[in-house]
Amino acid sequence: xxxxxxxxxxxxxxRTPKIDLGAGVVALVGRNASxxxxxxxxxYLGCTGELPAGTIAQTVRIGESEGFVAAEVEHSDxxxxxxxxxxxxxxxxxxxxxxxxxxxxxxxxTAVLMTPEDADLVHGSPSKRxxxxxxxxxxxxxxxxxxxxxxxxxxxxxxxxxxxxxxAAGLEVWTERFLALGVExxxxxxxxxxxxxxxxxxxxxxxxxxxxSLEVELQQNRDRCDLGDALALARGEEQAxxxxxxxxxxxxxxxxxxxxxxxxxxxxxxxxxxALALRVAEYRLLEEKHDEPPVLLVDDFTAELDxxxxxxxxxxxxxxxxxxxxxxxxxxFADLQLIIxxxxxxxx
Length: 348
Prior knowledge:
By secondary structure, the protein is an alpha/beta fold.
């Protein structure tokens, strides 16, 4: 896949209405706070329809109420135009002029964004790791995306009934649906994690060179019993708190090096390498799904990476049909180099 052009209006500090891009390695060079990350976020939003981080209010320029991003993406079936309109509390998506959802865009085009903040996947909260897993599986499986949407709706309704009391009308019906959805989500997660873990472990071994083995597993908060039994055991807690304390919405990714938790004991460097391995696994899985590599977005390639890890990342970029690589200095090679100053992008 190749992002041919990126258009924007009112996206943070960006001032250039349209950026024309090409295949190969595209370098985006500028000082800190010049807008490099904003270009990367806009590219990710244009390729996927998803906000990479933050809210709509944080994405639209301060003082403006609406924003817009459009991307022309070339892929094996032709070229698609993705348009994203941003307004308070609302995101409108179009694919080739037709209103769509994120899952429809994921069938056609996609991208992987790597940033220095990826280390938070390891040392951050369980919700970050769940978010990573759910976002990836939603791109891989429209079925998973639909299940997850319904699960969240059912969970909200069930929690509302729990707050009314144990005898609330309809609680049993919503509980049955919750269990059915939860079991299916668990099954899809476990199946995808087998391949994800394999790819991440291979990447870690190649990049780290420390002889340690990376293990990625689904950590469920239910002591190895099935979801129905776990829910029955937690009945007292959920009635007291008015929330559902067990289920896929409370699970986590367990990340271990030689059997020791990276979350608890890993160094910053190990966390950064594990996060890189997870992103590369994401890239490989999406490549397998689409039968072609996704657009690769590498924000600040020099940040928190030693020479060996940086070399691996740049080698990956050189082998993909297109990689946008940003930094305060250019990479050793680039097919196109752009300079950004105060949100203005121009040819070097």
